[in-house]
Structure formats: structure tokens, C-alpha cells
Design goal:
The complex is a heterodimer. Chain A is built from 36 helices and six strands. The N terminus of chain A is likely disordered. Chain B is an alpha/beta fold. Chain B is globular and about 75 Å long. The chains are: A mainly alpha, B alpha/beta. The interface between A and B is large, with 71 and 71 residues.
């Protein structure tokens, strides 16, 4: 081997640069050297022969935090450690080294490296082989760099630490009511724009009532507010609304959109989840008692892992149970479990960090600093969790259940006593076969299928975790609770005859199942609830090469993204550690994402309008300092969401009129400068709730299971579950929040008014304006019934005088008086209707028990329908 | 609108002019435009017909979208070479771009078992699954060299319909109605028909979204049955005159509010109610397919259960176009045949082949084909290699997603029929001759409608967006 480069050059970066500059020369040397090879290869000099080769051909992709496939070739240690597919370098063993395999691949199944610019010459490949076989000498202090990459620190706004911005100095000091207004006004003054005047009091109360509790104010509430001359009348009204039990209902909605809450499994069979509502119940109550955001976060993500966790804290993890379940025959159990874990990673990343990590499932994120490895580190937190339903007794259930339990177990033991030994033996054999199949798939198709079926049907139409049955088998008899053992035993009695039909019949096990069923019927019931728990059978998390769960890469430990402050060092970090890390003071993202989304609820658009993406491709915030100011105020006030909402709605910015201003149409068409409030069409829920509320039909009961209000039969028939058994009685008139959400055939009113699909995370709803909405409000029997009830209400509450009645109607529906022009239009309509209706059979008159004259009732139904179709009625101004 | 109402609107216009509220004025002119009588006012209603950039060859579009991606290799693109290679490894050069480790590892050529036959003057190949469509070959332009840039369903469908793989952009139907309005005064300008015998479309309502365009341009879905649109009928006991009276009062009150607040959304609301009313009177007649002759019904396959759902929608599409609806999207789901592709493709062609041929023939015999652009396409093609899912027996292999070359059928509206354009390589893998990206097709579709795809833009977040993003070339070979 001819050495032309000075041996005495010191190690270090300048030396390496020199080497690199001469790399063309090195190639020449390599060729010559190779040509004169003897049987015993000459010792390879790393710095001259290998380093330039790696730098020229490998380091462009395999260096830095975004190294492809996680493989970094900057140091020997990193090369040995390797990437997502495992170690790249085994010193002394070129044939075991992945690096060698990759550069010399001729197989279709292993893409040759480098992928571009042609394969390495035979000489270079030989050089690498020799170098590895000679022990892959590479001085520890030699760190190769890729000169093409500029190592820039991450400066993106969203990842910066939260600091308290100083309040800007403003000229129009008397306008500002709190800190928010300083930031907004500063910007407006800079633009030479004056803020809008305050909305009139009735409009303001209507706005803040809809925003805080999702229902319109009653005429009495409006009158009381207008007549309240105290300086803090508005603040008092806000306090009253924040204390309303309907506050939790209103503010549950964005969280349910986020976790895409639904009452069914999704996917082809779309089976029922009759206990899904328990999480919604927890959510409403948590918001009503103003659970601070840090506790709110911890309990929903890891309530089950808290020391001495209460039932309520465990139920909070139902938040993570709104992922879909595929129970279709042939569905791969692991594939859909993986999808659920991925969904949970996306949920937490979107909801608390505003990060679109989904891209990194298959490859390093192209725009944001999230590597594929980091994705699977987050994934590991949720990989280590199982879906499980808990006994979560409703009021009054627990005592009888507990009291009845010893009696039940005694009777159960008595029933099974004659066959206990035979049953236990047989079930043991059955479990053994299942476990064998699970461990060796593809060997025995019959038992593969048995295992799959156990995972597909366990707890179906009960909303139980579908893999629980498999997990109980894997856990083994000694580790099951009594109740788990009972449930698995019942499954075996129902589905296990395949193990030995003859013996099964001899023991008459089918008869014993009937006896157990009878026993079950007479036993006190306890309602169950979805939750999460630490994995019963621990899982080792591996990366999925290119996002394919069938191609496991290297093992990873749970950890948080490197671009954010580090997770405190701990062994085997858990979901609880993740949750604590999210709400730690060093982490700027959760509070920023939360206040950003809260702003959206009050102004229609958030500061960063892409509420789900705070990354490089997302929107940059219109008022970055105000965003941080709000986040700091939020922290100052103990992360109370009610305090945050109070702070926002008491600002002068919020209290501005929403009236459009012609001079701003071209200057600020999207109202990003906040020189006025916004007119926002009500959400799907609120449209329905408003109609029911003003007509007096609303059943304002808070909480409870989902209900099935009236809708056309054709809607439900689109889905797999082709029936919709309408609720009866008061349940037909519950708030939209409680409407049963069948994922595959969503409730039509919801779809028409832009409710999001219940299969994907949603942080902001659209607000469209379509003829279908018009047809719904005009003709949907639900709205016709509301119009009729409202008509009766007006006729009864105002004994006489069409003008007084119209005025009352306006106060009920729009929180204001009717103008004379408006009254005149409606009066003309009323006269016209009476003439048309006289002498006709009245189909939409009020029921005779109301005592209302049919013609008058029908005319007022039409009139009330007009008012409930007004743009103003379905708009929050 | 009756004269009295018009008078009151004009009075209000006067008020607005003197009160100097520019906002209400614009909105009011929209409002008057919707009335169809206000010729003195500039028409700016969202669906008001607008002049194209240049003389069009097509006025309407029917886009028959085959969601899930049909196999071009089993329908349109015969590959004798594959027979010889059947079951053998695929040459490595072909797998270079394939981003699918599973397929790549197991890739073996899967020759189509279908028998192909040549149809029409041009000798256009169709497999024995598409014999009916073969009979209208002289009106079809078969493009065998289309490619796309994604191999996932949602992004692929979005790319075809919205020009980007991302959610949140306007659909082609929205762009076209935004550019041209719609001649139909009584029906939405952009209608979506979903086959009722299958499940919905992967990417769902995003495929007919108006994106950042005004919501008026969102596609309106029609349902099967006598009430195609939910809540189309008046409530019991409400006559049409009573409904009209309700709407007149509503319109006046909304107009008053518009003047007061200047909230332009109210103008859209008024327009939406007027359209709703017109839909009420028009739609029942529209969807009453019993008004068609027995021969027509039979031609579309309405007398057989298997073809009825798709056939009804094809017939409905013709009736919509007859009534001036600008853009009809017709979906059939779901061609995603990862297993047993041979049997599954037949399931779909059994349902769609006859009605699609009938649609072309019927449009032609009524003189509508000349001005109606018909598109038959999926989001991509399928691999020439087999895909073996767990538990699948030999002979029942599927094909995976394949973006590098696939076939699209076009007809009418200025498209040159009776020709095959482009070709894939010997395996049907890469489009090699007259390659056309989906954006090129979109540019060509807009061209047929008299629209320059680089000029049909909308300013959003500081940028002029368009259907073809920054790509697309009009493919003159396709044009008559």
C-alpha cells in the first residue's frame, strides 16, 4: 500500500477536512492499492482510506439527528450501535456487518447502498471488507462530519421556552380591561385601526352565554343583565355561567372532537359500545369542577397509574379508548392494535404538543424535528398499555353488588362443583393450544383461527377491550383475578368445545353454561366503564421499518422528543412520566396548544389557525406574545380552565361588537387583527340545543347514557347497524352532546352542520352554509316540532296582541326586541297564513291538549319556524 | 320573488347607497342576482354562469370515480409478456421505485387470467370483464399512461379530485363551479352521487369539499330513493304556497339583518335558502326514474338488482346534466383488491360495466356527449406483482397499489374518441409513452371547459392557489 499522505498529521477536524479535500487522490490510491493486492491484505489506514469513503458516500444521509434509518456513521461507537435495523458494524466480521451487506447487496430485497450515484466500485467494497475484518480500527476521537449539513439549532417559535412578555405600552389606555387588550391594541395602533365599540348588552350576554354554556340566555336573564347597573354586572354574569352545570357540556365538545369520541367500534361491523358514555360523563364533571389542566392531563393519560388511583381517576383514561376496534373476520389482531397505539400517539401529540408526528411513523418527519425513532419512543409509552373495562358502579349499584358477590361466588362454586376438575383440565388443554398457536402462527390454521376469534369477538357489542381475552390466556391462571377467571371460563364454556367435543359433551358443559347464565341474571348488576391499564403481558417495543409493523427494527425505550426539554431520568418511564413531563413547567407546548384552541372557541379562529399543527408547515401565530401571555396567565391561575375562559371573556377585545366594518374588508378580511368580534355560525349541537331550548322542549338533564333522537330511517341504513331505535319520552329532547354517535352512519343533523367525522382527531370544525342546512331547519320534523312548541309557548305566555307576541318570540329566540319593520313582515305573514289555513285540515297544529286554536297554532308554528330559520338564530354575533 | 318584495329590496338598495355601506351593497346585488330578474344589477351570485377564458368544448362534467383503484392490468392493458413471467421474480429494475417492503420481498409476476378482445375501429383492448364498455369504444379515449405521485388511497383520491394529497383543498367540481357557475337555477351546481350498494369513499367528504373556496361550491350529496336529499319535502300540511310565504318572510328578515350588520355570510344564507326551495320543486321530478322509458331503464340495467344502484346513478347523472348541473361526481367503492383480484374485479365490473356503457350511449343519442366530458378513473392502478396476504390460497392473490402507470377512460366534451393514447412497459409497470400525470389530466379537463388551469386561481393565505398546484400541461393528443 502506497502512503502519500503525511502520517504525522494530527487527528482532528482540520485533518479530516484535509483528507476530505484530497479524497479524489485517495480514490486513486485505493485503486492502485487494490490492484497490487497480495494474499494478505495490507493494513488499512482508516483516516486515509475509509474516512473519505464514508464521508463521500454515506454521511450525507447517515449523520446528524435526522440520519436516515437512524444510522449515524460519525463515530465508531455510533456505527457499531447502528440504526433502526440493528448494528451496522461488527468489528472483525465483515460478513456479519450490515454495512458490508448493504454496500455489496445484489439482492432485490436489500436495497444497495448508496441508493444514488451508482454502487461502490469493487475496490472500495474490498477496502471496507478488509477494514472490518482487520478490526474496523477507528480512533475514538475521530468524529466524521458531513460538511454539506449545516448544524442549526432549532429556532422554531413553538419550541421556544415560555417567557412572560412585557405588557406593551398603548396609547388608548382606557380601552384595555386586561392584559389581552394591551397586545391586541398595540397591534391595532400600529396599523392605525381603532377597535370596535363594545357590543350592546343583550348581544353581549347572548354571546357569552352561548360561548360558556352553549345555550341561549332566557329573556329573564337578558333583562336582569340589562337592568343590573353594578360595575361588575358582566363579571357576575360570567361567574354565574361558569358555575352552571351546562358549562361542562359546552366545553366537553372540543375534547370529544379531539379524541373522536363515538359510541361504536368503527370499521366494518361497527359494533356498539354501550359504556362509552362513561368517559363523556367523567369529562363533563371534570370540567364542571374545574379540574386544573395538569391534573386533567395526568388523569386522562395515566390516571390508572397514579398511586392509590381512585375509580374516577381510572375512568379518566377512557379518553384513550376512543380509538377504533376492528372486529371484522380476518382482521389481523396485531395490525389493529398497532393502529390504536398509533392513534393514541397522534392524539397526545396533537392535543398537547400541536405536533403532526404521524409522518414519523414511516420515516423521519420531513419538516419538523421528529425522527422515526422518536415516534416509536412515544409509541412505547402507549404500547405498554392494555384496553380494559372496569367495574365502575353508578350511584346505588355498588352496595348491592358487593353484598351479592359472596353469595354469587358460593352458588357458582356449588353449580360447577360436580365438573370442576374436568372443566379445569379441559380449559387448561384449550388454553395450551391457543398459546401454542399464538406463539407459532401459520402452523395450525384451526387454532390460529381460534386465537384470532378470541381477539375479535371478546366483549363485542359490550365495548370491552377486544384483546382482553387473549391477554387473560397469556397471563395464565395464577395471575387472573377471580372475576377475570370467571369471565374467561364463561368464554371457554361458550366457545371452547373444539378442544375435545366428546369430553365436552360427556361433562354436559353446555348445561352448566346455562346454569351460570341463569345465576348471572339474578345477580346485582354493576355498570362497566372503558379504561386503560399497564400491559398485563409486557411488550418490548420495536421500531417498525418504514411503518410496517411486520418488519420490526431495533428495540426502543419510551422517551420524549429531543427537541423539547428532556424527560427526567428514570428507569422504564411510564405513561404517568409522560403526562408529568407534558405538564412540567419546562414544557412550553401543552399550555400554548391549549390556550390557542381556547381562543378559537371564543373568536372563531386561533392565533395559530392550524390548531393541530404548530410545526414548520403550520400557521404562524398572529399574536405570538399574546399567546405566551395567555399561557403564563393560565399558569399563574393554577391552570384553571374556567379562570382562563373568564380572563378571555372579560377582555375588551372579546366584548367588541362583531359588526362588519367596510374599511377593514380589504385590509383585514380574516379579522386577524381582532379589531372586532366575529359572527360565528353555531355548531351542530348548538343549533339543535337552541331550537329545543327556546321552544321549551329541551330536557336539560346533565350526563347519562347516549340517546337516539329522531332522524330519517335512511341515515342509519347507510351503516352496518341498519337500525336506529328512537328514544322515547324526554330522551328525544336531550342536548346534542348526548346523541348516539354511530361511527359509520353519523347522525344526519350533525353532518349537515359540520360535525367532524368520529374516526379522526379534530381540533377545529368547519362552518359551512349550504342548502342542506336550510332544508333541515325548514323541514326536519325535529325543527318543525320545536317551532310548534315555540308557537304554543308564545301564545300561552302572551295572552293577546300579535305585536306583543312577536316581540316575546324575538326575546326568546334572539334575545332582543323585534324592529317595527320585522314585526310588519311577520304580521303580513300571519294574516296570509290564517287565510290560507282557514277551513283546512291542519296537520301541524299543536296537540288539542294545549287548548290552542288549530288554525292559530298552525299559523304560529309557521311564524316561529321563520324565526328559527333566521341566520341570526343560528349565529353567535 | 313577487314585485312587492323586489320593490322593498330596491328600496333597501337605495338606503344602502345613501348610507354608504359598501358591504351590504355587494351582498344585496348578489341577493338580487339570485332572483333572476334584476338584469340592471351586476350578477355576482355564486352559481351565476360566468364566461370561460376561451371557447369551451365541454359545458358539463360527469366524473365516474372508481374509488379504491381498479386493476388496469385486468381491464384495459393486456400484457402478453406477463404470461411468460407469471410466478417468476420481477426484474429488479422494476422494483427500484417501489416503496413497499412487503411486496418487494415477495414480488412475483401475476399475469392476468383475463381474455382481452379488441373493440371499435381503433381496436381498443378490453378484458372480458368490460364487454359492454367495449361496445362504445369508438367514443372513448383510453389513456394508458397516467401516473400519480402517491400510493395511498386518501392522498391518491385527493390528488385526483383536489390536485393535492392533502386535506383542505377545493375539489375539481368546486373549482369548475367557482370558475363557471352553473346553468341550473334549481339544482346545486356540483352534485355527488354515492352508490348505495357499497360503503362510502375512503377520503370521504373531503373529495367534494370547497376547501378555501366559498362553501357554496361544496358538492351536495344525493341519496337513493324518492327523497334524494334529506328533508326535501315540506312538513306535513305545508303547501308549496305556504312554504314560499315562509321563505319570502325569511328572506326579508335576513335581508334586514344583512343591512344592519353587513355580515356577508347572511347573503350566502339567503342564497342557500333560495336554492333549497328550488331544489324542493325540482329534485322529486329529477329523481323519478320511472319517467324514463322502459328501454332506457333496461339499457342502464335498472331492471337487474346487480346493476340497479350504479345504473340509477348513471341515469341520474345524465338527468342532472340535462338540467344544467355543471359537475357530477359519481362514486363506486371499493376496488381495493389486495386479495383475489381476479374474482373481486368482476364483482365491480358486474355492477358498473353495463351502466357506464349505457351512460355513454345515452348521452350520445341525446346529443349531450358533445358537450359533456365523461371521466372514468381511479386514484391509481395495481401492481403487476401479486400480493399474498396471510391465509390466501394460490390462485387467489391480490394486487397492491401502483402509482407508476394506470389507465383512465375519457369521452365527449372535446375529447377525441376512438383512440388509445400512451402505453406502459411490458409489465404494465411504468407509463413509458405519452406519460401523463394526474395534474396534466386536470389541466386538460379545465381546457375542455374553456378554462386556463394557470389562470383559475384563488388567493388564500397570501398565495394564489389553483387545481394543478404548480404543475400540469394540457395534453393536446387527447383533444379532438
Amino acid at each position: 500500500m502506497v502512503n502519500v499522505i503525511d502520517h504525522e498529521l494530527p487527528w482532528g477536524s482540520s485533518a479530516m477536512r484535509t483528507v476530505l479535500a484530497r479524497s479524489g487522490l485517495v480514490l486513486l490510491i485505493v485503486l492502485i492499492g487494490s490492484g497490487s493486492r497480495t494474499a494478505e491484505p495490507a493494513p488499512i489506514d482508516f483516516s486515509r482510506q475509509i474516512a473519505p469513503l464514508l464521508q463521500n458516500h454515506c454521511l450525507a444521509c447517515h449523520s446528524g439527528i435526522k440520519a436516515r434509518s437512524g444510522l449515524r456513521l460519525e463515530t465508531r461507537a455510533l456505527a457499531i450501535k447502528g440504526g433502526y435495523s440493528g448494528p451496522a458494524l461488527v468489528p472483525g466480521k465483515s460478513q456479519s456487518s450490515r454495512l458490508m451487506k448493504m454496500v455489496s447487496s445484489t439482492s432485490d430485497e436489500v436495497p444497495v447502498m448508496p441508493p444514488k450515484g451508482g454502487r461502490l466500485s469493487a475496490c472500495k467494497i474490498q477496502l471496507i471488507e478488509d477494514w472490518i475484518d482487520q478490526g474496523a480500527k477507528w480512533p475514538a476521537e475521530v468524529v466524521l462530519t458531513n460538511p454539506a449539513i449545516k448544524q442549526e439549532p432549532v429556532k422554531h417559535w413553538a419550541f421556544q421556552a415560555l417567557v412572560r412578555p412585557a405588557l406593551p405600552v398603548i396609547r388608548q389606555k382606557d380601552w384595555a380591561r386586561n392584559g389581552i387588550d394591551h397586545f391586541v391594541l398595540k397591534r391595532l395602533e400600529g396599523e392605525g385601526i381603532t377597535p370596535s365599540p363594545e357590543a350592546d348588552r343583550a348581544a353581549l350576554l347572548r354571546r357569552v352565554t352561548l360561548d360558556l354554556i352553549g345555550l341561549p340566555p332566557s329573556p329573564e336573564e337578558v333583562a336582569a343583565f340589562i337592568n343590573d347597573t353594578r360595575v361588575d354586572a358582566y363579571e357576575r354574569a360570567v361567574d354565574r355561567l361558569l358555575a352552571s352545570p351546562h358549562y361542562g357540556e359546552r366545553w366537553a365538545r372540543p375534547w370529544l372532537d379531539l379524541c373522536h369520541f363515538g359510541d361504536t367500534d368503527g370499521y366494518l361491523t361497527d359494533q356498539l359500545r354501550p359504556v362509552a358514555w362513561r368517559y363523556r360523563q367523567w369529562l363533563i364533571e371534570a370540567l364542571n369542577r374545574d379540574l386544573p389542566f395538569d391534573r386533567f392531563t395526568i388523569e386522562q393519560l395515566a390516571g390508572d397509574l397514579l398511586p392509590d388511583a381512585t375509580m374516577d381517576q381510572k375512568l379518566a383514561t377512557g379518553f384513550l379508548r376512543n380509538t377504533l376496534s376492528n372486529r371484522e373476520g380476518g382482521a389481523d389482531l396485531e395490525q389493529y392494535r398497532v393502529e390504536q397505539v398509533v392513534d393514541r400517539v397522534a392524539l397526545v401529540s396533537t392535543g398537547w404538543m400541536g405536533l403532526t408526528v404521524g409522518c414519523a411513523r414511516c420515516h423521519d418527519h420531513k419538516f419538523d424535528p421528529i425522527s422515526q425513532r422518536e415516534f416509536y419512543q412515544l409509541y412505547a409509552f402507549f404500547d405498554d398499555a392494555d384496553e380494559v373495562n372496569l367495574n365502575a358502579p353508578l350511584t346505588g349499584e355498588m352496595a348491592p353488588y358487593l353484598a351479592g358477590r359472596p353469595e354469587y361466588q358460593k352458588k357458582r362454586a356449588e353449580v360447577l362443583q360436580p365438573v370442576l376438575q374436568g372443566l379445569t383440565d379441559l380449559q387448561g388443554r384449550w388454553e395450551k393450544r391457543l398459546l401454542e398457536a399464538a406463539a407459532n402462527p401459520g402452523v395450525d390454521a384451526t387454532w390460529d383461527r381460534q386465537w384470532e376469534v378470541l381477539g375479535l369477538i371478546w366483549g363485542g357489542n359490550l365495548g370491552e377491550g377486544q384483546l382482553e381475552g387473549c391477554q387473560l390466556v397469556q397471563l395464565g391462571p395464577s395471575k387472573r383475578t377471580t372475576e377475570e377467571a370467571e369471565r374467561l371460563q364463561e368464554y371457554f364454556l361458550r366457545h371452547g368445545a373444539i378442544i375435545d367435543g366428546k369430553r365436552f359433551n360427556e361433562l354436559k358443559l353446555a348445561d352448566y353454561l346455562k346454569k351460570l347464565d341463569a345465576l348471572e341474571k339474578e345477580r346485582p348488576k354493576v355498570t362497566r366503564a372503558p379504561a386503560m391499564r399497564k400491559a398485563a403481558v409486557p411488550r418490548k417495543t420495536h421500531m417498525h421499518v418504514r411503518g410496517d409493523f411486520r418488519v420490526p427494527g431495533i428495540a426502543v425505550e419510551a422517551n420524549t422528543p429531543g427537541v423539547l426539554p428532556p424527560l427526567p431520568a428514570t428507569k422504564n418511564p411510564s405513561r404517568l412520566d409522560l403526562a408529568n413531563w407534558l405538564v412540567s413547567p419546562d414544557n412550553p407546548l401543552p399550555d400554548r396548544t391549549l390556550v390557542n384552541r381556547a381562543w378559537q372557541e371564543f373568536f372563531g379562529k386561533a392565533f395559530a389557525r392550524t390548531t393541530d399543527d404548530f410545526g414548520a408547515r403550520g400557521d404562524r401565530p398572529s399574536h405570538p406574545e399574546l399567546l405566551d401571555h395567555l399561557a403564563m396567565v393560565f399558569r399563574d391561575r393554577g391552570r384553571s380552565m374556567k379562570a382562563l375562559h373568564a380572563y378571555i371573556v372579560t377582555s375588551a377585545t372579546y366584548r367588541q361588537s362583531s359588526r362588519a366594518r367596510s374599511e377593514l374588508v380589504t385590509r383585514d378580511p380574516d379579522n386577524r387583527l381582532l379589531a372586532r368580534q366575529a359572527s360565528l355560525r353555531l355548531s351542530a349541537d348548538q343549533v339543535r340545543d337552541s331550537a329545543l331550548a327556546v321552544s321549551g322542549l329541551l330536557d336539560a338533564k346533565v350526563g347519562g347514557p347516549s340517546v337516539f333522537p329522531q332522524q330519517p330511517a335512511s341515515v342509519a341504513m347507510e351503516g352496518f347497524r341498519n337500525k336506529w331505535e328512537e328514544s322515547t319520552g324526554r330522551d328525544r329532547y336531550r342536548r346534542g352532546l348526548y346523541t348516539y354517535l354511530q361511527r359509520l352512519s353519523p347522525f344526519a343533523q350533525n353532518v349537515t352542520f359540520d360535525a367532524p367525522a368520529t374516526s379522526a382527531i379534530c381540533t377545529r370544525r368547519e362552518r359551512s352554509n349550504t342548502p342542506l342546512q336550510a332544508l333541515t331547519l325548514l323541514n326536519d320534523p325535529v325543527f318543525v316540532e320545536a317551532a310548534r312548541a315555540l308557537g304554543v309557548r308564545v301564545l300561552r305566555e302572551v295572552p293577546s296582541g300579535w305585536d306583543k307576541r312577536i316581540n316575546h318570540l324575538f326575546h326568546l329566540a334572539l334575545s332582543r326586541s323585534a324592529s317595527s319593520q320585522e314585526s310588519a313582515v311577520l304580521a303580513r305573514y300571519l294574516v296570509d297564513q290564517r287565510a290560507r289555513l282557514a277551513g283546512r285540515a291542519i296537520a301541524h297544529a299543536p296537540h288539542e291538549t294545549t287548548g290552542v286554536d288549530p288554525v292559530e297554532g298552525a299559523a304560529w308554528t309557521g311564524l316561529c319556524s321563520i324565526v328559527m330559520n333566521l341566520h341570526e338564530f343560528i349565529t353567535r354575533d | 320573488m313577487n314585485p312587492r318584495n323586489l320593490h322593498s329590496l330596491l328600496q333597501r338598495r337605495q338606503f344602502l347607497q345613501t348610507s354608504g355601506s359598501g358591504l351590504g351593497m355587494i351582498a344585496l346585488s348578489q341577493l338580487l342576482a339570485g332572483d333572476g330578474k334584476a338584469s340592471a344589477t351586476q350578477s355576482t351570485g355564486p352559481m351565476e354562469p360566468r364566461a370561460p377564458h376561451f371557447a369551451p368544448t365541454a359545458k358539463n362534467v360527469i366524473c365516474v370515480f372508481m374509488a379504491g383503484a381498479p386493476s388496469h392490468l385486468d381491464l384495459f392493458d393486456p400484457k402478453p409478456t406477463m404470461r411468460k413471467l407469471h410466478g417468476q421474480p420481477v426484474p429488479a429494475s422494476f422494483l427500484k421505485n417501489l416503496d413497499d417492503p412487503v411486496i418487494k420481498a415477495s414480488a412475483r409476476v401475476l399475469a392476468s387470467p383475463r381474455v382481452f378482445k379488441r373493440y371499435g375501429k381503433s381496436g381498443m383492448d378490453f378484458s372480458d370483464y368490460m364487454t359492454h364498455t367495449g361496445t362504445v369504444a369508438d367514443d372513448l379515449c383510453m389513456v394508458r399512461s397516467v401516473y400519480t405521485t402517491t400510493s395511498n388511497h386518501d392522498p391518491g383520491q385527493l390528488l385526483f379530485q383536489c390536485g393535492t394529497t392533502l386535506f383542505g383543498h377545493p375539489s375539481m367540481g368546486a373549482w369548475v363551479t367557482y370558475g363557471l357557475g352553473s346553468p341550473s337555477r334549481n339544482l346545486p351546481g356540483f352534485v355527488v352521487l354515492l352508490s348505495q350498494d357499497t360503503y362510502g369513499v375512503d377520503a370521504g367528504t373531503a373529495l367534494w369539499s370547497s376547501g378555501y373556496l366559498p362553501a357554496s361550491y361544496r358538492g351536495v350529496t344525493f341519496r337513493a330513493g324518492p327523497e334524494p336529499i334529506l328533508h326535501l319535502s315540506n312538513p306535513p300540511g305545508v303547501t308549496d304556497a305556504m312554504q314560499r310565504a315562509r321563505l319570502d318572510a325569511l328572506r326579508e328578515l335576513n335581508g334586514l339583518r344583512l343591512e344592519k350588520t353587513g355580515d356577508l355570510e347572511i347573503a350566502s344564507r339567503i342564497e342557500a335558502y333560495e336554492l333549497a326551495y328550488r331544489m324542493q320543486s325540482t329534485a322529486p321530478e329529477l329523481v323519478d326514474l320511472s319517467r324514463e322509458t322502459l328501454a332506457t331503464r333496461a339499457m342502464y340495467g335498472l331492471e337487474q338488482e346487480i346493476t340497479r344502484p350504479f345504473g340509477s346513478n348513471c341515469l341520474l347523472a345524465r338527468r342532472l346534466v340535462e338540467r344544467g348541473v355543471r359537475f357530477v361526481q359519481l362514486y363506486h367503492s371499493n376496488w381495493d383488491d389486495h386479495s383475489d383480484v381476479n374474482a373481486n374485479v368482476k364483482v365491480h365490473t358486474d355492477r358498473t360495466d353495463l351502466p357506464f356503457a349505457a351512460l355513454i350511449r345515452d348521452l350520445k343519442q341525446r346529443g349531450l356527449l358533445d358537450t359533456t366530458l365523461v371521466i372514468w378513473a381511479g386514484e391509481f392502478g395495481r401492481t403487476p406483482m401479486h400480493e399474498v396476504r396471510r391465509g390466501v390460497n394460490p390462485g387467489h392473490e391480490g394486487r397492491d397499489h401502483h402509482p407508476f402507470g394506470f389507465t383512465v377512460l375519457l369521452a365527449g366534451g372535446g375529447i377525441k374518441g376512438g383512440q388509445v393514447v400512451g402505453a406502459t412497459d411490458e409489465l404494465g409497470y411504468h407509463a413509458v409513452q405519452d406519460r401523463m400525470h394526474v395534474h396534466d389530466l386536470q389541466a386538460t379537463f379545465l381546457h375542455c371547459l374553456g378554462l386556463d388551469h394557470t389562470k383559475l386561481t384563488f388567493r388564500h393565505q397570501g398565495r394564489d392557489f389553483r387545481l394543478t398546484d404548480v404543475h400540469g400541461q394540457v395534453m393536446t393528443k387527447l383533444l379532438a
